[in-house]
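Show me a record, fold above all:
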Amino acid sequence: MANYRVWYASRDPYHCIFRMIRLLEARGGPVPFEQLRVLDMFLMFPSLLHRLTLTTALRERLRSLEIEPPTKTFVRLPGTASVWQDLQIYQLTALKRLAGLGLLKREALRDRNASLDRSQAPAELLQHAISQNEAAEPLMRFLVEDLGALPMAGSQGLVRRAGLPSRGPVT
């Protein structure tokens, strides 16, 4: 019998690096670390977007994306808070690696923001991120423009709307 290895994109820090590059490229400016982590979670598992508490307008935009709900995509997907906690180690590793490679602007890092330094990023990697973003343009726009415009904290904040723990490990 052959030995097989199973690969999970959600547990691959290099896949996470690429997802974060995609989000930063789509945003075109600085993104707070915590917001980048939330957006990355939804980019990795778009079906979790159905679990968000959204305004009527945002709910309609989400419906227009035609993303299947978690019940049709997964046999059993843990709660959003569990997914958030599981992704944390890979997301923090990815952020540290991006900073270590000099792909994040130093001045943004001081303010706990991530901002892509395009001059340091390999052109082929950026082009691949751009083409992936174009292929998923409606989803990327929803994540970066619609969810990215929501405040992170407060009763109407993204953390609360997503059902994420408001306190937890320091990022």
